[in-house]
Amino acid sequence: MGKEEIQNNGLETEYVRNLNCNYERVALEEKPRENRYQYCILNRGGIRFLLPCSLRYMDGTAFLYYDISSTQNIAQLFEGRSLGREWMREFLWGMERMQQELGRFLLEGRNVIWSPEHIYQDLERKDFYFMYVPYCQKDTGFKQLLDFWVEHIDYEDEALVEFVYGLYEQYTSAGDACLSRQIYENFKEVEKREKQRLRTPVTEQTVESQEPKQQAVQEYIARQKAAEVPEQEYTDRRKGLFAFLGGRRRKTEDISYQEILRRQVGMQALGAVSEEITYAKEEDGQEEEDGEEYGRTVYLEEQQKIQTRGLYRDNGELEVRIDKLPFVIGKKRGEVDYVLEDRSVSRIHARILEEEGRIYLEDLNSTNGTYKNGLRMQPYEKRRLEKDDELRFGKVEYTFQ
Fold first, then answer.
1. Contact, 360 vs 382, CB < 8 A?
2. With contact defined as beta carbons under 8 Å apart, do 144 and 7 qualify?
3. Does the pTM of the predicted model rise above 0.85?
């Protein structure tokens, strides 16, 4: 069972499987008063766009069990991918409908958990589902959602960048108070201005109008630098920058974050840390070694190992080569690296990934389970892979080599 702690709020959660359902459960610090309204209404169920929830006890500890079957959390869905404006529009619509449901049942919006690891989407119906913790006294993670957007939005879309930047500024000044209906109106207004901007010819006056935004971005960067962001966050955001730049590689040069923002998004960006990034040397098809151009000598054993890593059938035939990591397996075309057209396989079923030089198998909240050497894995559990491990996805079996 994979335990994890939501950053900065101390809400302890873990993934478990019970009968035919997958759950994310939250341990409560104190025994709850079950007769209080929010527990009663949540336990009764039937609230749309909230994860179905039940209160249970184990060894004297109270847990809230949230049914996450047949859904995926958005952090997992968009690992290594960018968020477009259409997705943002759907998310905000789902968020608005959820808040309307809260109002209908007299539930308080400040108890919704906003961390992207705890917001789920049904990939078939496209609906979003949110975790509601009654009488929550901890940070509910809206800043984590904003940071997630910062790292994953499509920085080629100026309107989307402008919206996220504006929302981040509102959150900085007003906190969770920015979670009002105005957020949807702001998104519509940004899209409206974008349409007008596309119709308006570029003039000297138009360029000058960007100066206040440039000043705002520079001020934001200065605040981030003064905040002494931990080294891990520097690393994570540096990785995000390469995604923002579309994977393009440039010749070796030192470029400040301000310059990157100016080049990529017309000074309408946020969430960057003021630091210098050195870009890798542009590849010309050959590498330079000691001033001479030679290709790197590759050991035959190393080459063979790379070529043969994959999933094999019982008869020893290679079914699919794993030539990239992470490698996602499922039956939803366009969302996975290997399509398994079997009814027992989930749309996004499992993935093979590398961490610190080791290869792991991770279940992605599959319905019929992911098995390693006959043992079923918990939702989002990772297990290290070794050569000749027997893997099963639903009813489909392979050997990993």
1. yes
2. yes
3. no
